[in-house]
Amino acid sequence: MNIFLTGGCGYIGSHVCKQLSERHHEVTVFDNLSTGSKQALINGERLIQGDLANPAEIADALKSQRFEAIMHFAASISVNESVEDPLKYYTNNTRNTLNLIEQAQNLGIGIFIFSSTAAVYGEIERGIATEEDPTNPINPYGWSKLMSERLIRDSYANGKYAILRYFNVAGADPSGRIGQRNPNAQHLLKACMKAAIGSNDSVSIYGTDYNTSDGTGVRDYIHVHDLAKAHICALEYLSRGGKSDIFNIGYGNGQSVKEMISTVKEVTGIDFQVNRCPRRPGDPAMMISNAEKARLKLEWESDYDDLRAIVRHSWDWERKLNA
């Protein structure tokens, strides 16, 4: 198929591009390169540099070929930043998604696959989210994504959409060709990698008094390879006539912040300083996925449901990046 993919020069988008190209799909990437890198496109994918804030640029890009599907990854993704600057998130995530949908609808592009987030659930009482659980975000990032979901569901009521709600994405391409390049990424594992490699002095734990086994937040860490694979499964599902739907993408098990840090120290063989800090606004205590729907309907199977593998691939990439 001929795919139009926004944010393909970023962390998740580039891994999806790689897998699409390996399956012989044609991929055109639309990216403003504000956080992404051209170096992330390793299989010769076509790049159009443009901004989703500009409807004319979107229209010109979409008219450049006959696209059959859109995969939308471009977004701002920091929970903490969204609390500090909510308008940035409603602008970059929600309004820009509306711009993209409007131009896609004008051209009759019938398949839309959206990069959403588990942050749309907010605080889940039992800590394990199913797609049927209420959505009540506790930060502007989650709200900006939930509003985008509503736009897609309404606009594509007569088309085909898949909304993928990610849990905590981590790791790097197992072959070592791509990974998280953004030096300002705020994910826990990236922070640990930077501490292990020596570019940061320490790692901070935000909150040690949660109602969890060790007092730190618990998350469902999913390998970026498996997350990318889920998008391919979603594309194939819709292409063969599957009904539009929302899918959680995660492993269904959780690791605490302390467990992640301990695993990084074990895999890398490097000790580093850990600072204990107060909780950050907008962070839930526990967020684990129930992803049975994706496994059943999308026929998605994970390859790297192993925290040590996730950390090892990240470490291999970080050393390559800093060689």
Descriptive notes:
This protein is of the alpha/beta class and 323 residues long. The protein is 38% helix and 20% strand. It is built from ten helices and 15 strands. The chain has helices spanning 11-22, 55-63, 79-84, 86-106, 140-155, 188-197, 224-239, 257-268, 292-297, 307-321; strands spanning 2-6, 26-31, 46-49, 69-72, 111-117, 128-129, 160-166, 168-170, 202-206, 218-219, 221-223, 245-249, 255-256, 273-277, 286-289. It is globular. The two termini are 37 Å apart. The model has no long low-confidence stretch (mean pLDDT 95).
How many strands, what sense, and barrel or not for the largest sheet? 7 strands, parallel
Element-level helix/strand string: EHEEHEHHEEHEEHEEEHEEHEEHH
What Rg, in angstroms, do the CA atoms define? 19 Å
Query: Low-confidence runs (pLDDT<50, min 5 residues)?
Result: none
Share of residues in strands: 15-25%
Total strands: the figure is 15
Q: What is the count of DSSP helices, taking H or I runs of 4+ residues? A: 10
Average pLDDT across residues?
95
Outline: globular
Instruction: Kindly state the percentage of residues in helix.
Output: 25-40%
